[in-house]
Amino acid sequence: MTEAIGAVRGEAGPPTAAGPVGGLSAHALVDRGPLIAGAREHLAGGGSVLLTGPAGIGKSTLLSALAGEFADHQVLHCSLSETERHLPFLGLIDLLADTGDDVLDTLPKHQRAALDSALLRRTDPVGERDVLGLRMAVLATFRALCASGPVLLVVDDAQWLDAPSAELLAFMARRARGLRLHALVGLRTGPADPRPEPRLCPPPVRSFDVPPMTAAEVTRLLGDLGLPRPVLAKVHRASDGNPFFAMELGRALAEHDGPLDPAAPLPVPDSLRSLMLGRLMALSARARRTLLTACAVARPTLALLRGAGRSEAAGDIAEAREAGIVMPGEVVRFTHPLLSAVLYSEATERERLAVHTALADAVSDPVERARHLALVAPGRDAEVAATLSEAATAARRRGARAAAARLGLLAADRTTEEEDEAGLRLTAAEDALASGEFALARGIAEQVLEQASPPAERVRAWIVLLDSVGQALAELDDVFPRALADARDDPALLAPLHYRLAWRAWLVKGSAAKARDEAATAARLAAEAGDRRTEVLALTKQALVEFSTGRLEAEQTLARALAGSQDPAIRFDHNGPVYLRHRHHLLHDRLEEARAELRSLTYVVRQRGAVESLFMCLYGSSQVEIFRGRCDRALDLADQCLRLSEDSELSRGPAWCAVAFAEAAGGSLDRALAAAERAVAQSEDDGDLLFLPHALHAAGHIRLLRGDAAGAAAALRRVRRMEDEQGLAEPALRRWHGDLAEALVRIGAVDEAAELIEATRRDAVRLGRRGVLAVLERASALTAAARGDLDGAAEGLDRAVAALTASPYPLEEGRARLELGRLRVRRGDTAGARESLRAARRVFSRAKATPWMATVVAELDLLDVGVPAVADEADPLRTLAGVERRVAVLVAEGATNREIAARLFVSVKTVEAALTRTYRKLGVRSRVDIARLAAFRPPGDHPA
């Protein structure tokens, strides 16, 4: 997760005879947070930055965004083009266009004359004897500009800078020591280019290669075009993450007539086609024919190309490598995917047919061979259909479910047995589901339902439709009656439908009791029909509901699901009992067993499972790593969840939820809250009552950590209401109870907090949830402190610290030590408070829990400077939340925003936002006003 840097203006594409090619959308957002942060820091320290990368990668956008952050500098800008590079001194003219006579009049007469000539402010040209004078004039001019403030040179497309201007800037850069002068330069580079020398930049210089966009960034860039996610994923691959190329491809797709087939080649717009063809046509005709063969096969080696009839392949590939068309290596790889796409699309039908015919004989892989056969043998053919069906099975065994879906559809198109066609299509639809291509699966199912298919195939198609909407089952509420009508009284057809009715009862209707009844019915019908696969799924669902409602028979139900051999398809499914077993471990605080279960399951699911199952394994693993206090690992896993949901058609609500919890544990609270709010909105849009409480818990937890107790209480009260309405009674399921109790205490609802703690404790004792009981001990101590029983609160926190230190939950241990430190501050025990806070800091530091570290460090800072932990009515800062108060105190000490951010372990933007809220709450306009108010805080380190 990174911060958006602003609107993408985009740099022009490579120039044509008519000038630069287009630009990117002015409304799209590009995420380049790490690069921006590094460049910003180096520029702020007085250095220069060189951005390199190919055309269209976004250098101009980044230059503009960075330059805009230095409003206190005089920014001199020049933007160049290839057609103007022969015009001498044009770059210098652009840079000094707004420099007035007041600056130039400070130069000696002969220098002023030389510079005026170069800037075309007089008619006589610069002669050879004036070159040194011109160099000294430029240096003197920039010294004069820097005397009145720092100067930032912004040079865009430096490769087109005219030679005289380049020489002058390099001369000045070598002599810029002591000047408040730095540069921000963008330079186009290719994959085989040597690392450029930053000769235009005053030292110290830091170079950044602008990276390609990720799939998620391309998805956001093209978000307004309404393209399906599989198509967006294909655009990312075809563009190789280049934003200019992605935008051009996206626009061409948006203007495409008719439905978009994710399997079909992308339409390459003329703007990109001409660019790629210009490079390809420089090759010999023989080399282009060899490359056409290479781009038609998955893994083109020289041996395979020779086997396909390209006897001179080695020489042809060497020619292409010399021209920068392909990369070095044993396998032929194009330097950009669009080169391959354009070469294939420009070939004639006859040329493509010849290539696929040759490859069908040359390749040994059955999946690859079947694909080539299908392309050279149109029409229905029983032998080809059988080959394609076998290839689809082989692809499925390998875990290549998307490829299996395509091959299965081809087999359905080629089969001569009409009664087999619907079955082949539905198998392809199920493969599409597994690969996350839900739109394709839906289209196939709807096509089958339009035909007069037998009941078994119709029910199978209805199930594909239901499974294709993920968390948004509410959208298909009318499907169930029609599917049940098709199933009639056949238990084999009714069982999988009742299993999905169990999911509907919980997801859409919010009734755990109804969900359990439907799951039990599905299990009974499946057993009657001899369908062990559906029986295991239904028993697993029944066990999950029983665990969630606090029913003791859940253990026995899970054991029934796990009994006997496991169908591999169920073993690797996130709805199966093996996945549920890790959640069972979590209920009993067995974190290492849960982690081991998920690690082994994830490994196999990556090879053979469905996209949704992989997502849920990553989601569960992220949760476990937060519990274990491995916050950096949790962030990585949550990021994988988000990328997986963006690359497929999975609902993003759960993904944003994973990101929210991980960022709250070890990242940025700003990003955490943004993710939580998106998770809530997405879950509400989907009508997903299963994940919505998770999302609300995330939002409440983050608001509590940010000091917004009222907002936290509102979100978490809603979670409690939802769980009560659903009939849930398992306190270890979501573990929100301690957060709500703390939020209630902080807003003064102490009696409500006590009632919640007591009700939760009864369930935790009945079910033996020791980890929950330890957290409740901390919450109970906070209620005692709020009622003035500081001795009782201290004893309770001591018990909580002891219990949590012995537990596997380091973040909860750190929170207990933090509260003990705060309590000791209130009691006037400065030494004890410092000891507890330092112990909490050690715990959070080991866990890399950045937001919690910031909280503890701020408490220690306040302790060191004698700031009251709890403001009384006479305190002018009493209206400020925790972070705002800490920022205000440090502002009063004279700290800069950057210094405050460093001390509190937050971003500068977080400090700025806190200051904005502080100005509003205190009714002041400046830092000086804050300092004056802070001076009137009541005396004494620790109020009673």
Automatic annotation (TrEMBL):
<dbReference type="InterPro" id="IPR036388">
    <property type="entry name" value="WH-like_DNA-bd_sf"/>
</dbReference>
<protein>
    <submittedName>
        <fullName>Regulatory LuxR family protein</fullName>
    </submittedName>
</protein>
<feature type="domain" description="HTH luxR-type">
    <location>
        <begin position="873"/>
        <end position="938"/>
    </location>
</feature>
<dbReference type="InterPro" id="IPR027417">
    <property type="entry name" value="P-loop_NTPase"/>
</dbReference>
<dbReference type="GO" id="GO:0003677">
    <property type="term" value="F:DNA binding"/>
</dbReference>
<dbReference type="GO" id="GO:0006355">
    <property type="term" value="P:regulation of DNA-templated transcription"/>
</dbReference>
<dbReference type="GO" id="GO:0004016">
    <property type="term" value="F:adenylate cyclase activity"/>
</dbReference>
<dbReference type="InterPro" id="IPR016032">
    <property type="entry name" value="Sig_transdc_resp-reg_C-effctor"/>
</dbReference>
<dbReference type="GO" id="GO:0005524">
    <property type="term" value="F:ATP binding"/>
</dbReference>
<dbReference type="Pfam" id="PF00196">
    <property type="entry name" value="GerE"/>
</dbReference>
<dbReference type="InterPro" id="IPR011990">
    <property type="entry name" value="TPR-like_helical_dom_sf"/>
</dbReference>
<keyword id="KW-0067">ATP-binding</keyword>
<dbReference type="GO" id="GO:0005737">
    <property type="term" value="C:cytoplasm"/>
</dbReference>
<dbReference type="InterPro" id="IPR000792">
    <property type="entry name" value="Tscrpt_reg_LuxR_C"/>
</dbReference>
<keyword id="KW-0547">Nucleotide-binding</keyword>
<dbReference type="InterPro" id="IPR003593">
    <property type="entry name" value="AAA+_ATPase"/>
</dbReference>
<dbReference type="InterPro" id="IPR041664">
    <property type="entry name" value="AAA_16"/>
</dbReference>
<dbReference type="Pfam" id="PF13191">
    <property type="entry name" value="AAA_16"/>
</dbReference>
